[in-house]
Every structure is written in structure tokens, then in C-alpha cells.
Amino acid sequence: MTETAVIAIGGNSLITDKEHQTVPDQYQAAAQTCAHIARAIQASGLRVVVTHGNGPQVGFILRRSELAARELHMVPLDSCVADTQGALGYHIQRALRNEFRRLGLARTAVTVVTQVLVDADDPAFARPDKPIGSFMTRAAAERRRREDKWDVAEDAGRGWRRVVASPAPKEILELDAVKNLLAGGFVVVAAGGGGIAVVEDGPGNLSGAAAVIDKDLASSLLARRLGAQLLVISTAVERVCLDFGKPDETPLDRLTAAEAGKYMALGHFKAGSMLPKIRAAVEFLEHGGRRAVITDPAHLEGALAGKAGTLIVP
């Protein structure tokens, strides 16, 4: 049976640096990553779902809303995530189509605007701590708190920002659509930005939530619900390292889920960087996944062939 893989591409695959943030720049960055994905699909024959980050792009939309606030309405956070799913999905679809055509590969990519159910009672809603949007003065932040009911917080000495909840993903609501598209031979782009966070009321009606979902944790959940055998998390480094950035930095070629859990407990991985990726890999493996790989875009093909990246096994 053909294996299914979920490939989660990070923000570095869409924005390379502060000097290359325009929409054409973002497309070129996506195209470079998609070239590696297409060649990996050609070499492996995998059924593939691609997920992606969207943090900077959501920030751009929010900043535009702030600048235009005297003339135009603000854009709610759930709509920002939906907007970026469409735009970035379009970039990935176009780049994959061009690369498949160049390779002579009869595959087509399609994007599913994906809602992800979160629990309205998730403790994260009581402790919003995920910074989004632009920096503000304290006075501006207090005004936003009063007038717009925003949660705001000082961010690492650089200024004040809006903070929102980052609840745990519970269900991928468009799961059946993703399954059917995979069965039809499509490469599916789904759960962009961790999915659009929605909550459900008693009768089952959905409402958008002012929250962001961790992209890697949502990718892990999607992989588990699909019964995927492989979870690939693309990031800025080729391999996971212990003591990252220190003189005794140690890259890891292979580790077990138990070893990964031990290293998490010892504090080897930072919360805003490698920690959610390791957590996502461990959760995937603890719920039936066969293997997880963490690497950078340039080594995707080698990682799928067992020649690069960090392999994590049950």
C-alpha cells in the first residue's frame, strides 16, 4: 500500500529574511521548497498532505488593518487565518504544478480551507500568551484593551503587543475532504497556519475563535487522523540538536520517542522553536505513527530516503 505523509513546512519556507517579504519573494521561497517536495514525491511515490505556517502573513494583514482603521473595518483573526490559507495555498499549488510539469509527473495539488475545532473551555483562553500583530506603546496597548477588549502584554522589552490564546487542536473538520482528495491522487494543502480555530456551541453551531493553533501540533493531529505513516516537519536546521547554539552542540541522526521525551523534560528544546516540533513528533508516534523526520527544506529528499535529517521512531 502507498504510504501517506504529512509534510509541515515552516515560516522559513515562505519568508527567508526581512529583506525578502513581498508577495513575489514569498512565492519564490515557496517555490524553492516545493521543488524539493515534488522531487521527494517523484522518488518515493508517497501520498502527500502539505501543511504550512502563516505567522508573518497574519501579522501583515493585521498591520494593514491597523493602518487603514480610519477608513476600513478590522479583520477578525479567524478571517486572517482563512485569508492566508487561501493565498499561501495558491502559492504552493502553483509552485507544485510548475514543478510537477517540469518533472513530467502527473500530479495535481489542491488547497482545502481547513477549520480546526478547539475546546471553548481550553485553559489557554484564560491565559492568552501568543503575540500577534505589530508592536505598540503601552498607552496604545491600554487603549486597545479598553476599546477593543484585546489582551495585551509587554514582549521581551521590545514593546507591547496583542496576545491571543493558542489552544490544543481537537478535530480537523474537513478531514473527510482531505481523505477523499488523497484517495483521488491529489496532493493536498490543508490546515494552513494550524487551521482556522473554531469553537462549537451546544446545538453544534461553529464560531470563529480569536486564537491561533500551533501548526506542528495541528499537523500531527491531521497525520494521526489520516492514519499517515510518516510526519515530516521542515524547519530552519537540517537536524535536531542537543545544546543548540552552544560550543558542545550535538546533532542527532536518530532517536526514539522516549529519548525525545527525556530531552524535552531536560529543557533541551525552546518553546518557540524546536519544542513544539518534538512534541508533535512524539504525539504522532505515540498514536500509531511509524516515523517522524525533522529537517530543513533542502534535505527533504535525503531525509525521506533516510540519508539526512533527524529520524524519530516509536
Architecture overview:
This protein is of the alpha/beta class. The protein folds into two domains: 4-117 and 170-313, Carbamate kinase (3-Layer(aba) Sandwich), CATH 3.40.1160; 128-164, no CATH class. The chain has helices at residues 23-44, 55-67, 77-103, 138-148, 175-183, 215-226, 257-265, 275-286, 300-304; strands spanning 4-9, 47-52, 109-111, 115-117, 130-136, 151-154, 160-164, 171-172, 187-189, 196-200, 206-208, 230-234, 241-242, 250-251, 254-256, 291-295, 310-313. The protein has an eight-stranded mixed β-sheet, with helices on both faces. A four-stranded mixed β-sheet has the order 8-4-10-11. Strands 5-7-6 form a three-stranded antiparallel β-sheet. Helix 6 (215-226) runs parallel beside helix 8. The longest helix has 27 residues, at 77-103. The radius of gyration is 19 Å and the shape is globular. 40% of the residues are buried. The mean pLDDT is 93.
